[in-house]
Amino acid sequence: MDFVASLFAGLGLFFIGIRLIGANLKQMAGRKLRRLITRAVSGAGSTAAFGLLAGAIMQSVNAVTFVLVALVSAGAIDKRKAMPVISWANLGTSLLVLVAALSMHDFILVLIGATGLAFYFNLDQSSRYRYLVSALLGVGLLFLGVDLIKTAAHALRDSEMLREAMQMSARFWPISFAIGLAVAMVIQSSTTVTVVAMAMAGAGLLPFAAGAMIVIGAGLGSGLSGLTLAGRLTGSARQLVLYQIALKAVGVGALMLVFLADWISGGQLVIPLLDRLGLSRSAELAAVYLALQAASTLCIALLDAPISRLIEAQAPPSIEEVLGKPQYLSEAAMGDADTAILVANREQARLLASLPRYLDALREDGAADDLGVQGRCEVDRTVTRECNMFLAELAERYTSRDVLDQTLRLRDRNELIVALQTSLVELAESAGGADYDNVRALLHSLVESLHLMLETLADVAATPDEEDLVMLRMLTHDRSELMDSIRRRMQAEAMPHDAQQRAFAATTVFERCVWLLRRYVLLLDPAAEEGRSTRPFEEPGRAGQTLARAM
Q: N or C, which terminus of the chain has less Cβ within 10 Å?
């Protein structure tokens, strides 16, 4: 029972750690951190060193894979650069088997203790360190989960049932392979199964052939165990997990071919080679484990192109992943200030073009949106966060007054887009399901009016001219008096309280959206914002009367 409880707790901490790492890396994965990580995996040598070190330290390819999943999800590293890290980390775990003992327990406890002190001194409340502290807590919990799983697995070393099963499997190779596969899937580790097999082989309780099949089966089982941890991962994140399984599978396939050839030759290939090396019985199984990891790394490198195509076909990038990536922002654009400002403008224009789709579900002729309002907001929010980091770096790199002025204006516009995204989601939630005729008619008018403003702004924001700005200022004049009159009229009518609350919430959000749009329009026209221009066409009565008649 202790074994099951420890295993269950370890899996729980593993999941919590992955969630904390992913959520906080998304917040702290700025462009500087990305460049640092990209530099660490920029070349074949650095990627190999990084992967070997990660595998040796974490002692688990699953742990390495899911940390990389968090980095890929945060946009800190590209999936194509993460895959070789998994391959080398797989080879790095061999160090544990070669020394048969490597404990991270003390380091994990120190890491969690240090993170606890950071929380005690309120560093988690600091705008500078809070995401780092929470991410470190996630790393600590992930390591602690892996450690608990391994601790639970160590109890199997003294299990008479496991020893008897391994001895029985010596009579039939497929049983040996199945035992290694099943145990590794349960305990999430092929190294523990290999160490047990090595101990039994050293004691003369397990023949080499059966032990080798157990080690090979455990290699495949540890890969498949990653799929059980993948949960609802999609797109690039799931591709990394599938890559890990493919990595293990091709290595297992290669070694099985070797042992098949050895069996056909009457045992004239593997055993004579090991005898010439003069290895002990336990060291022979360690050599099999090392050969399995080396075969996996070599075969995956040779079959990289077809395997990558197959993985991408099985787990194509999700709509959220595709739409959540900036289309214009790039590191190359940062080399010139004018170019950087231009691409930031184009990215914001793309975000503005997405805003009218928030209202599609509320319009009679609106097209269906597969993402939904909340999903589209999350996708667009990812792009606005990228845009904000891009502008922050632009302001740090170029300090001329003109560039800083344009950058600050773009950042203000970015904040207004975020506020509009939030307000439109709120409007969609408050307006949905209206079942009272007057409220339904009101919501229809509000939605159509706001949709017109959003589409007009999206059409002219990229290259606004004087006439466009005049029209936008007319459309986005102050609507507070009009909304107040509508609320008073609704309050005077005999209607259900729920319908009245829905109408009040919708008019309030509509008023806020119009104000935000007005602010955006003024940021497109500096002269109007600074009050250097008086325009007789900004008479609120005309457009207000038009909207009132529409309602």
A: N
R_g of the chain, CA atoms, integer Å: 31
Q: Please report which residue ranges of 461-479 form alpha helices under DSSP H.
A: 466-475
Buried b (16+ CB within 10 A) or exposed e, 103-115: ebeeebeebbeeb
- H helical segments located in 93-204: 94-99, 105-120, 130-154, 160-169, 173-187, 190-202
pLDDT tens-digit readout, 274-326: 778 777 777 888 888 888 888 988 888 888 889 888 888 888 877 777 777 88
Query: How large a percentage of the chain has pLDDT more than 90?
Result: 7
Cβ–Cβ under 8 Å, residues 68 and 240: yes
Whether the per-residue pLDDT at 244 is higher than 80: the answer is: yes
pLDDT, one tens digit per residue, over 55-114 is: 766 656 777 777 777 777 766 677 777 888 888 887 777 664 554 434 567 777 888 888
Spatial CB neighbours of 145, under 8 Å, sequence gap ≥ 6: 9, 10, 11, 12, 13, 14, 15, 16, 17
Q: What's the CA angle centered on 206, arms 255 and 271, to 5 degrees?
A: 45
- Rounded to the nearest 5°, which phi and psi values hold at 178? -65, -40
CA angle 55, 57, 59 (to 5 degrees): 60
Residue 420: pLDDT band with limits 50, 70, 90: very high
Rounded to whole angstroms, the Cα distance separating 163 from 430 reads 63
DSSP letter, residue 473: H
Q: Are 176 and 214 in contact (CB under 8 A)?
A: yes
Cα distances (angstroms) measured from residue 427 to each of 443, 510, 517: 10, 7, 15
Alpha-carbon distances, residue 334 vs 186, 327, 346, 392 (angstroms): 49, 14, 14, 11
Mean pLDDT rounded to a whole number for the chain: 77
Q: What is the pLDDT of residues 348-367, one digit of tens each?
A: 999 999 999 888 888 777 66
Where does the pLDDT of residue 141 fall: very low under 50, low under 70, confident under 90, or very high at 90 and above? confident
Q: Which residue has the tokens 């269906």?
A: 368
- Is residue 43 classed exposed, middle or buried when 0-12, 13-18 and 19+ CB atoms within 10 A define those classes? exposed
Give the integer Cα–Cα distance in Å for 295 and 273. Answer: 17
**Rounded Cα–Cα distance for residues 410 and 416 (Å):** 10
Secondary structure letter of residue 318 according to DSSP: P
Q: Which residue in 502, 345, 324, 320 sits closest to 409, CA to CA?
A: 345
Q: What is the pLDDT of residue 2?
A: 67
